[in-house]
Structures are given as C-alpha cells and as structure tokens.
Amino acid sequence: MTPESAPTPIAILSALPQEQRGLIELLHSPCRFRHANRDFWVGGLHGQQVVLAVSKIGKVAAATTATALIERFGARGIVFTGVAGGLGAGVEVGDVVVATDFVQHDLDASPLYPRYELPLYGRTRIDCDAYLSGLLYQASCTALAGGFLVAHGFCHSRVHRGLVASGDRFVCGVEESHRLRDLMAQAGHEVQAVEMEGAAVAQVCLDYGVPFAAMRTISDRADDSAHADFPNFVETTASPYARLIMREFLELLSSR
Ligand code: SAH
After folding, report:
1. How buried is 76 (Cβ within 10 angstroms: 0-12 exposed, 13-18 middle, 19+ buried)?
2. Left (φ > 0), alpha (ψ -120 to 50) or beta: where does 29 sit?
3. What's the pLDDT tens digit per position in 101-117?
4. Of 145, 146, 142, 157, whose CA–CA distance to 233 is shortest?
5. Can you tell me the distance from the alpha carbon of 45 to that of 7, in angstroms, rounded to the nearest whole number?
6. 195 alpha carbon – ligand 1 mean position (Å)
7. Which of 6, 126, 156, 226 measures 20 to 30 Å from 207, CA to CA?
8. For residue 5, is pLDDT > 70?
C-alpha cells in the first residue's frame, strides 16, 4: 500500500512521541511510512481510517508535519491533541481547552503590520473548523464525565473553549506568563492556553482549506514550576486521557 492508494484519512497529530505511542497500539492493520524525517502510521481506529503523526516541538516542525499530512497522506481533516500551559483565569492543571481559534504570540512585524498580525494574510487569528471542534468538545465532555481525571486526582477538571496562543518558547515564569496574557488582552486577545505548535498547523490548514480542530490538556500554569512534573503528567495523565477523547471523537465522527 502507498499513502496515495489508501482511503482518505483523518489525521491525528500529537506534539510528543509519548502522546502518539498509545494510539499506535490501538491501530487496526497498521502501516508505517517514513517521510520527511518522521514516522506516519496509517490504519483503522474506532471505525475511521486515520493517519497518526508527531508534530515535533515548535511552529516550523509542526508546519512541516501538517504539510506532509495533507500533501502526502491526503488528510481530509487534522485533529491535534497535546498539552499546554493554562493562561486564562480558572484554566487549571487537569482542565481541557478545546481551541476556538489560534494566534501566534511571538509574531511581531510591527511597525509594518500591527503586532500579532500574519503578514500578507490580513488577519491575526485563525478559526478552527466549527464542526470538528464541536465534536471534539462533545468528546472531551463525555471523556471527562467518565471519571478518568478524578481517578488521577483531578477532581475539579473542566472543559473550556477559547483562544489558544502558540509561540516558539516554553513559557515558564509567573511574570512572563502574566505579561504575555496582559499584552495580548490589551490587543483584544483573551488567551486561555499557551503552547508551541497549534497556530502553525492552523495556518497550514487555512492555506490548504483543510478543516482543523485542537484540544490541549493543561499540564502547567506556565509559571515557575511549569517544567517540574511535565514528563510524568504527559505519560500518566495527558496521553491516556487524549486517547479516551480520541475514541469518543472518532466514534462520534463515525455515527454522523
Ligand atoms: N521536556 C519535554 C519538552 C516539551 S516542550 C519533552 O520533550 O518531553 C512543551 C510541549 O508542551 C510543547 O509541545 C508545547 O506545545 C506544550 N506546552 C506545555 N506547556 C507549555 C508552556 N507552558 N509553554 C509552552 N508550551 C507548552
């Protein structure tokens, strides 16, 4: 089988390899393709033909993966799962943020363009696909109601919807995260979470006209202890939780 001969898949994009691993184990008839210095896994998952990929960390790496998913694997939609720092008031570790739209917090071509604006795009924020995001939100709420996070000690977890900011920087300081949140709020952008890839994938999907949705489990508050328990949280909590959400999401997609 070549990627071109396979049925059109929905892409599930993870930021880190440990987030992808559990999904590969669930694939029916898995097929691995090595392309652009990355592994892509094609197969069946909860009633859907899927292609699994790791974005790697940062905007450029994520854009390369997204482009390959569309150009080489014919992805008919891309869904991103990963972790992020909570920036919005009340967005706490163990919560989930389903993105409504994305902005690049480190993009600054001023004074040629207003700060945060994407040069030559005439826009600052990129909307996620309403249909896929709605399913992702529903899937996240169903997974939350299943009690997985409570069993992991997160008794008050909530699912939020809102703006997510991406940039090539792991934000890990109270002062830095407050400055980022306040600066963006002054420009009219109420950011709920910060991460390093989503806006790049959103931009690639906008260019190709491919629907995009994203969810992030909050791993830290982007403060001074953001780096402390990160690997442990990703392994024990965020990754299995994202798998539950993906199962709900793909089953919802199959039932429509
Ligand atoms: N030591 C880690 C490095 C992860 S970098 C490892 O390689 O295993 C952080 C990842 O989590 C990125 O994919 C980013 O999107 C997300 N992330 C989580 N918290 C973040 C924060 N506070 N600021 C920026 N990105 C964050």
Report:
1. middle
2. left
3. 999 999 999 999 999 99
4. 157
5. 13
6. 6
7. 6
8. no
| CA of 177, closest atom in ligand 1 | 22
Is the C-beta atom of 58 inside 6 A of ligand 1?
A: no
Known catalytic membership, residue 19: yes
Token reading at 6? 């396979």
Could you tell me which of 30, 42, 116, 109 has the C-alpha nearest to residue 72?
42
Ligand 1 pocket, 172 CB below 6 A? yes
Cα–Cα dist 168/40, whole Å: 24
Residue 96: which H helix or E strand, with range?
strand 96-104
Active site residue 101: no
Tens digit of each residue's pLDDT (9 = 90 or more) over 143-201: 998 888 888 888 889 999 999 999 999 999 999 999 999 999 999 999 999 999 999 99
Protein residue with least CA distance to atom 6, ligand 1: 231
Pocket flag, ligand 1, residue 157 (CB < 6 Å)? no
Separation in Å, CA 3 to CA 32, 52, 68, 211: 10, 12, 11, 20
Tell which residue, 183, 219, 224, 240, has the closest CA to residue 84: 219
- The conformation of residue 5, written as its DSSP 8-state character, comes to G
Tokens representing 207 are 């260019």
Name which residue sits closest to atom 18 of ligand 1, judged by CA. 84
Domains of the chain by start residue, with CATH: 83-255 (3.40.50.1580)
